[in-house]
Amino acid sequence: MPIPEPHRLSAVEMAGHVEAGSLSAEAVVQSCLERIREREPVVRAWAHVAGDEALAAARASSPGSLMKGVPFGIKDIFDTADMPTGYGSPIYTGCRPAFQASAATLPRAAGGVLLGKTVTTEFANRHPGPTANPHDPGFTPGGSSSGSAAAVADFMVPLATGTQTGGSVIRPAAYCGVVGFKPSFNMFAPAGMHPNTETLDTIGIMARSVADIALFRAAMMAIPYDKPAMPERAPRLALCRTPHWDKAAPDGQAVLEDAANRLRAAGAEIVEAELPNACGNVSEVQNRHSYFEAPRNHAPERHRHEAQLSPALRHGRIEGGKKLTLDEFRAAWREADHMRAAAQDWAGNFDAILTLPAPGQAPRSLASTGDAIFNGLWTVLYMPCLTLPAGKGPDGLPVGVQLVGKRHADARLLDIGLWVESRLGAK
Amino acid sequence: MGGSNQLSAADAVSRLSSGALTAEALTRDCLDRMAERASVKAWTNLDPDHALAQARAADRAGRPGLLAGLPIGVKDVIDTFDMPTQHGSSIYKGNRPFADAACVALTRMAGGTILGKTVTTEFANRFPGATVHPHNPGHTPGGSSSGSAAGVADFQVPLGFGTQTGGSTIRPAAFCGVVGYKPSFGEFSRVGIKLQCQNLDTLGLICRNLDDIALMRAVLIEMPHRTIDRAAGAPRIGVCRTPLWDVADGVTHALIEGTAGRLSAAGAAVVEVEFAAPFRDIAAYHQRVFYYEAAHNYAYEHIEHRDQVSQVLLDTVLDPGAAIPLADYIEALEVAEAFRAHLDDLFREVDVLLTPSAPGEAPEGLGSTGNSAFNSTWTLSWAPCVTLPAGTGPKGLPLGVQLVGPRFADEKLLDAAAWVEAKLN
Description:
heterodimer; A: alpha/beta; eleven-stranded mixed beta sheet; 14 helices; 39% helix; B: alpha/beta; 11 strands
């Protein structure tokens, strides 16, 4: 019996069908390409789609591999030797690197098929690309990993990579209603990722289920694939409203409270907890890092193409970063070290932290990708983060919750995520 | 004229700025020296016309900026939009990046010019390039920043960029008898430098004068030029033999002990410093981070171009690195963090550590660029390091001593290094 709409399957289901012979990898890729053809004029998630190459790769893929020809997309902030690489900037029109990022090479080596490059904001910063929220094109998909979140949410591809310096994986995943995972800092090899802020840039991934995240994570790290294991007992979760609770919208607050109540009813122990006092300044530390690095990291563009940088970047982080002193940057690093140590001790009291991934549903605008206020702190703390869809906002757009784990306990966070996903029942 | 290639970067810049020297004349002197000494093989894909064109453009513009038309050498793992960037590998033959690396752009923005690309080992790792030691062509110049060290030592260029993941800036600088500097991790942007290890790679400088380091720091961090304070007084010095002391030869043992004695006699408070017991094996943790990250960051070359990767890199780094379990890598990251905190404690008692730059003179032969036993620990520590020339060994080749400062106290390290340098001479 033919399988209708293979593009709607999860990555694990796709791989299962390929292994069982009930679907070919080519049919999966073909289905995703058809979905892209149908929806791309509205969603505009892709900077480049390599359809013919992807079909050829699917035909050549090995059913014995981990990913079995399952397609994935990568954010156009990663270098690819066989596709254009634009970093979301007109400066890089026509750029074709000689190198291929590890975020493309390792999933390909695991049998994944690279479908193309997804839209990024300018240099994974603030100035948005053309992507719209697939649930309503009048709303932002979030950013900077805009195309990856929208493409996964819209069933164009089951898996995609992003990068997070402030909130660029977790926030768009939440706005688009998918699962987003930012691992502990530096867990995915960064070679070939165009840096935004070297101290913070973290490669992350998006999918439509926790199980798919685990599969893609194994491919990204070239590690053995262990399915996430359902915890034997209900977890102990810290309900953390963060120092920025007053910046959350009523819908964001309501979905978090509701999720906490549902998880408590399902057996979880929910304890109210706030970050240690040592972390009070964490969001400001994140800004100081990013601002200081921006003028130095963007020196090549400032030198030869300044007029093609967006005013937002030029007058924001680049000009702002020039005003910071070296001692302020050094102090930010020292403070961040101190905060990480304090947060690690604190996080050990819980199985995971339950918090907001964004202030609420996606804003109604394509001019801004939204506020990273609920993300930057966890990025600085280098802790693994997972966002799961958990409810709807006033306009019917998705609203998520975020789980945060102890640094370097990423697999454990996915186990807890599997439990929370099953109890929240949102797909 | 002629001979301006012998000037340090800082001295050349003051003449360029005052008009006593043109960028074209300086560049010509460097190019003449290179042509005369082509047997050192410090450069790759050199284009003298392009170097001169940049120099003339600087002269026409009035030699602005902190660098005022100064030519520098750029290790060929660092991207340049106007010159090939080949990473010491046939995989990248003819590769012309779309953009400059940040350090190259910052150099140009400060009025500097790019004389050319210097030879690197394959991917800044083990397999050597063609460069020979400028004092004796039968010996290695060290690596991986082989061409920058040899070119600077041979007066072909006043200053070169290096990178260090193990010992790739400090060791070749010491072998070639020049000054090498690895800054605190995180201070110099790495954008456009081929990434080997995210937790280790550090852009460094090779030059003939400590003042050149202070100048280039201002350029690369875009900060006001803070010159070295030569009145800062005697530093408190910790002699650090490291757990790998036995890897150094007797000449190096005598050099470090003799230097400690001279500095003490000159007024420095000198004490012995040892790593605490949990860190006796710290170099092994460096190696684990190094191999794991190199294997994952070089996945494209390792997996898709394996036949063009040297056997030594496959056998000793990439294949073993890809086999390291994630849990072992994470353990090494956590030990490294604890080691950094331990060093912070050690630096409460001393201002700088005195330690070998290398096990001895540059080894004979060109098959290996030497041992990074006295570098890798400091790379993992993220602390700033300087190597200073310190006489010659039994074969007449240079020796160096290394000074290590607390992280983010690079200015004080340079002040201390200037004090030590004055007492060495």
